[in-house]
TrEMBL record:
Belongs to the bacterial sugar transferase family. It comes from Faecalibacter macacae. InterPro entries: Bact_transf. It holds the Pfam family Bac_transf. The chain crosses the membrane at residues 7-30. Residues 5-189 form the Bacterial sugar transferase domain. GO terms for molecular function: phosphotransferase activity, for other substituted phosphate groups. Keywords: Membrane, Transferase, Transmembrane, Transmembrane helix. The lineage of its organism: Bacteria, Pseudomonadati, Bacteroidota, Flavobacteriia, Flavobacteriales. It comes from the Bacteria. This is Sugar transferase. The keyword 4Fe-4S does not apply.
């Protein structure tokens, strides 16, 4: 499964990057004008086997972008919000897939302090490449909205969302199949 998944990811990412390179460059330029900073944003994330890698995204916020649960909404630009709503800010992650750091489907790569702190059987999540989409991302596709409605978003993330995501991602890894990956890709597109 792993070799087939890697080949599928690489070929699909290459095709999509060729087809979407103009759109990605346009979004980088628009984001640069909108945020007054270079429109391609990188951040350290935890990947397979706990390895740290740089994730690529379109910049959606003014100032120093912290793509974490503590992000304040007022710093997201109007254009940035549209990019986030349609997940267009994540298109540069096709580069991460081509570099072998990510997959189309898998647990979302987290910032340091979460995935790298997993213990015991929870570390099974780190045995696969992180993904652009997956079952936890689909369940919590409106995570920013959920966190904006609670009094203490950090507590809520750490004690409600994160533990649930860990369980969802463990189940994903235990039942890893190409058929499921295709299902998650289709659900993401729809």
């Amino acid at each position: 499964m792993s070799l087939f998944k890697n080949i599928f990811d690489y070929i699909l990412a290459l095709i999509l990057l060729i087809l979407l390179v103009g759109l990605i460059i346009s979004m980088i330029l628009i984001s640069s004008l909108d945020t007054k900073e270079f429109g391609l944003f990188t951040q350290d994330r935890v990947g397979k086997n706990g390895q740290i890698f740089k994730i690529y995204k379109i910049r959606t916020m003014k100032g120093i972008q912290k793509d974490t649960i503590t992000t304040s909404e007022h710093r997201i630009t109007k254009i940035g919000q549209i990019l986030r709503d349609y997940k267009l800010d994540e298109l540069p992650q096709l580069i991460n897939i081509l570099k072998g750091e990510m997959s189309f489907v898998g647990p979302r790569p987290d910032v340091k302090g979460y995935a790298d702190a997993l213990k015991g059987e929870d570390r099974i999540i780190l045995t696969v490449k992180p993904g652009i989409t997956g079952p936890a991302q689909l369940k919590y596709r409106n995570e920013e909205e959920i966190l904006s409605k609670v009094d203490d978003p950090i507590w809520y993330n750490d004690h409600v969302l994160w533990p649930d995501k860990v369980e969802i991602n463990k189940d994903y890894v235990r039942n890893l199949s190409f058929k499921n990956d295709i299902k998650y890709i289709i659900q993401t597109i729809l």
